[in-house]
Amino acid sequence: MEYLSTQEYRHIVRIVGNDIPGERKMLVGLTQIKGIGYNFATAILDTLKIDSNANIGHLTDENVQAIEKLISNPVEGNFPTWFLNRRKDIETGNDLHLLTSDIPFTLRNDIERERITASWRGYRHLSGLKVRGQRTRTSGRKGGAVGVAKGGMAAPAKKSSDAPAAAPAAEAAPAAEAAPAEKKE
Fold first, then answer.
1. Could you say which of 66, 90, 132, 151 is the most buried, measured as most Cβ atoms within 10 Å of its Cβ?
2. Mutual orientation of helices 120-127 and 102-116 as an angle, nearest 10°?
C-alpha cells in the first residue's frame, strides 16, 4: 500500500511518453502503451508488487520511475527473452522490447530490407500477397477487384479554351449518317 501514500491523486499520469487517465486501473492503463500487452503489464506489476486493481492516478513518482525503468529495459528486470517482442535484432543482435513509434518504424525497415534483398518474402510483400505460406485460393481476397470489370464510356476529353466543345461533335454526326447511305446502293 506504499503507492497510496501521501501523494495526491493525479488525473493524468505520463509513462514512457504516453498520457494515461488517472481513473484507469493499473493493468488497463499500462496496456494503453503500444508494445505492452496484458501479460507484460501483469508481469511488470507483479515484479514491482503493485496492486493491479488500484487506479493509476494513485501512483507515486518513484513507482512511475520504477515502471519506466522496467519497461525500457526488461532484461535487467529478469524477464525471460521469450517475453520480449524483438529477439535477436538483425542490426544489433540483441534482445529488445520495442515500444510506441519504434514498432511500425522497425516493421517498415524489415519489409524494406526483404524487398531490397529480393527474397521470397520481399516478392510477396511487393505483390501484396500472403507472406507466411497461407493458402490464397479462397482466402485473402479483400482489396483487389474480383470478377469482370464493368465496361463503360471512355473518360471525356479535356476541353481546350480556344475551340468550342460542340463543334467537333456536330461535324462527326453527318459523316456517320452518310457512310451507311453509300452502302445501301
1. 66
2. 110
